Amino acid sequence: MHELTIESLTTLILDVPLTRPHKFATTSMVAQPLLLVRVRTAGGVTGYGEGVVPGGPWWGGESVETMRAIVERYLAPVALGRRVDEIPGLMRHFERVVSGAHFAKAAVDVALHDAWARSLGVPVHTLLGGAYRDGIEVTWALGSAPVPEIIAEAEHKLASNLNHSFKLKMGALDPADDVARVLAVTEALRGRAGVRVDINARWDRLTALRWLPQLAAGGVELIEQPTPREQIEVLAELNHLLPVPIMADESVQSPHDALEVVRQRAADVIAVKTTKCGGLARSRDVVAIARAAGLSCHAATSIEGPIGTAASIHFACTQPGIDFGSELFGPLLFAEELLIEPLRYADGRVALPTGPGLGVELNPDAVAAFTRD
Questions:
Q1: What total of structural domains would you count in the chain?
Q2: pTM for the full model?
Q3: CA neighbor of 304 nearest in space, from 39, 28, 51, 115
């Protein structure tokens, strides 16, 4: 048997507490469930991937529980006996067996890349064509506390030189209250840090037409996904109206989605999550389409743990088209460290890991401590 042959593909669910509640437009979380996917080869090499969604199935319909069922019942039988360097063929076969399930497929895709790169003794970014940069800027997502506490959190990040731009979630409050809250933060940070907002597709067209111009006039530098994902024409209308960029997130979950956004000029920036796109190859296709059309790309987060974050860093650092920074802060929200050696955050950036595979090593004691029974 060839040493790259896949001997096992197994999963674990972890529940890792956060340092503070993280709020989305429709939900909030105090712990993040992670699905660890573990691929082991005949040569004795183990690679890890991570299945994670931002706050549960409200975002894209998947959860760690559904991902585990898909991976173990449908994807693992396809992979066993194949080789970890057959990634394009395996991903194509997965498409024939399971429709959608991008987050689950991304977890397996990353585990295959990690195992293959470790077998060769090279970093994952080598498999992706080589590093273009050695790190990437990180925007910090501020919490949902009262305004003075949010401002204090931003001031601490600025004073510590940890982050230079910030994002606020919107969509959970009455629009007037939401806008007033954001503009108070924007004014407090004016001239020192950029402020962006993410509405998580929760406003309708009329609400967006009424309130988004006020956000732009008040100094908000970017508006992420204000309206429902399928309403590309509404996103295009808003993008043409506003003097600040619109970023498409929920609206772009495939290369075809990216093409439609390009056709309608519905956004100036595309949020690329290796999770929602179904892995590294499909994410690369999204970036290529955006770059060919002159759109920027942003390395976004699903609040991944260190495995998923490391994979996204490797990806972002190989892509010149990801030219609008990142939100790859996920591990900084975790109250407990899962790695033996943490990812390196400093000077507003996160550094590209340099070791074999993903360049990170899980702490087995931490994994055991948070594994769900």
A1: 2
A2: 0.97
A3: 51
